[in-house]
Write a structure and sequence with these properties.
The chain has 2 helices and 15 strands. Helices cover 5% and strands 41% of the residues. The chain has a single domain, classed as Jelly Rolls, CATH 2.60.120.
């Protein structure tokens, strides 16, 4: 499995090996041993899948707090997303900074986002489907978020404020400066 660390090295792009021939292809999209060898030794307990019908759909920036914090392993099975992870670990050298990458079915890549980060994405193609594994179960009482277009985060989203398709919940999240210390850097 190929892996590339982003500017915040805990967030990584992974590319599983894809074997193809005239019939199509085969790939191990998840292999616990290969991830452990890549330094990701976690137990994923739940798979989530989303479909976003329209280009410009923004989901995020979401996270769950302890004791239900989640690391995520995300891949796109149809279409493409502009994926963002924001470091929320108080005391981290990259606190309040973000990394972004394009994750797509065509590129056959995945992104690993550790616990302690807010996560979101914007669809780049219609009918985009995202599949992701998480390390803790969904816990609505632990779910929080950061405003997707918080100017202090300086995220260069591929869609403008007036074009983005969001849920009302995602529009109502607070900016980072109003967030309490939800994670500590270790």
């Amino acid at each position: 499995m190929e892996q590339v660390a982003l500017e915040i090295p805990e967030v990584r792009i992974l590319r599983p090996v894809k074997h193809g021939d005239h019939r199509g292809f085969f790939s191990e999209t998840y292999n616990k041993r290969a991830l452990r060898e890549a330094g990701i030794d976690l137990d994923f307990v739940q798979d989530n899948q989303s479909l976003s019908a329209e280009t410009g759909t923004v989901r995020g920036l979401h996270f769950q707090v302890a004791p239900h914090a989640q690391a995520k392993l995300l891949r796109v099975i149809r279409g493409a997303v502009f994926d963002v992870a924001v470091d929320l670990r108080w005391g981290s050298p990259s606190y309040g900074k973000h990394v972004s990458a394009t994750v797509s079915a065509a590129d056959w890549n995945q992104v690993f986002i550790p616990a302690g980060f807010a996560h979101g994405f914007c669809t780049l193609e219609p009918a985009t489907e995202v599949l992701y594994k998480v390390t803790d179960y969904y816990a609505p009482q632990a779910e929080q978020g950061v405003l997707w277009n918080d100017p202090d985060l300086e995220i260069s989203w591929p869609v403008g404020d007036d074009e983005a398709i969001l849920s009302e919940r995602d529009r109502g999240f607070p900016p980072l400066r109003e967030l309490s210390r939800v994670f500590e850097y270790e």
